[in-house]
């Protein structure tokens, strides 16, 4: 059995976006800083940030203080957007129309096979749920656990990396 | 980007289960016959049928007229059961708790990270949808396209292969 697993980059990219949502106006964070913040491998983080940029979730700012910023407000970036950037748009289920093969092929009714329709419906249910959670929601939940000492440590790190 | 794709065996296995649902009492179909019916590669079909058997979706009958049968009524086998048999139970999203790493680790609140919770909620929505469609529904939709000539061809094939 080949278990279906989401790329771990989806988690990394979502956390990176939450971090970018906290940036002051005009500031940016490099892929290296984003990797450092969660102790992630630099090369993979760089690859995932490029995928987010290609998908239009983040923008890349050039220059010595350059790096990444969110391309739009944190409440307009959903976890579905992040997943699509890293995993591609899907669908996960690809119908090969095997019902038309063999000694007793199905009559082509023009309608999708019930199997394909059911899995695509399930994907739509998944997508609706993942669309309903935004990076702003992630930021809010992470902020709930912040105390003054952590806030200061975070601000120091941010000042040193932007 | 590494697109997330479902194993094509899920489609094959679902169609195979629909075919098994049509078997008369006491009859069975071999993996080879199931492969032939949809012009699929024998070795892969055999592998997927073994996965269905391991998951308890089908049972294997020994002997010269042996083969596979559904392990329970077709309305008690869902497309989720078939997917789990072929792809494993998931979850697709694995949380690495990277929020606890790095220079500003999150306080451990004991609650799952909002990112993990959102993706697991989405997986539950997918699962509920896929659980709501049974092999019996697939059979009913395939039967809707049957005419007398196709029914005769099918019965002839079945008689030759069981």
Account of the protein in words:
- The structure is a homodimer of 162-residue chains.
- The first copy, chain A, has 162 residues and is mainly alpha-helical.
- Chain A has a domain at 8-90 and 134-161: Winged helix-like DNA-binding domain superfamily/Winged helix DNA-binding domain (Arc Repressor Mutant, subunit A, Orthogonal Bundle), CATH 1.10.10.
- Chain A contains 7 helices and 2 strands.
- Chain A has a two-stranded antiparallel ribbon.
- The termini of chain A are far apart.
- The mean pLDDT of chain A is 92.
Quick recap:
2 copies of one chain form a homodimer. The first copy, chain A, is mainly α.
The fourth-level CATH homologous superfamily of the domain at 8-90 and 134-161 in chain A is Winged helix-like DNA-binding domain superfamily/Winged helix DNA-binding domain
Q: What's the total count of β strands of chain A?
A: 2
- Report the span from N to C terminus of chain A: 46 Å
Q: Indicate the overall shape of chain A.
A: elongated
**Largest interface, chains and sizes:** A-B, 70 and 70 residues
List keywords for this structure.
homodimer; 162 residues; mainly alpha; Arc Repressor Mutant, subunit A; 7 helices
Structural topology:
The structure is a homodimer of 162-residue chains.
Chain A: H1 9-20, H2 31-37, H3 42-54, E1 58-61, E2 67-70, H4 79-87, H5 114-131, H6 135-143, H7 148-161
Antiparallel strand pairs in A: 1-2
Helix pairs in contact in A: 1-3, 1-4, 1-6, 2-3
């Amino acid at each position: 059995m080949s278990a279906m697993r989401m790329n771990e980059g989806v988690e990394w990219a979502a956390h990176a976006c939450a971090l970018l949502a906290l940036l002051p106006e005009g500031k940016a964070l490099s892929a290296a800083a984003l990797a450092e913040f969660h102790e992630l491998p630099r090369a993979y983080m760089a690859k995932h940030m490029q995928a987010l940029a290609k998908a239009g979730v983040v923008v890349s700012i050039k220059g010595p203080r350059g790096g990444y910023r969110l391309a739009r407000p944190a409440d307009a970036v959903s976890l579905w957007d992040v997943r699509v950037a890293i995993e591609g748009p899907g669908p996960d289920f690809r119908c090969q129309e095997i019902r038309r093969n063999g000694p007793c092929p199905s009559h082509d009714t023009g309608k999708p096979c019930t199997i394909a329709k059911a899995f695509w419906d399930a994907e739509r249910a998944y997508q609706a749920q993942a669309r309903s959670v935004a990076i702003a929601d992630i930021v809010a939940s992470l902020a709930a656990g912040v105390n003054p000492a952590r806030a200061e440590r975070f601000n120091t790190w941010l000042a040193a990396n932007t």
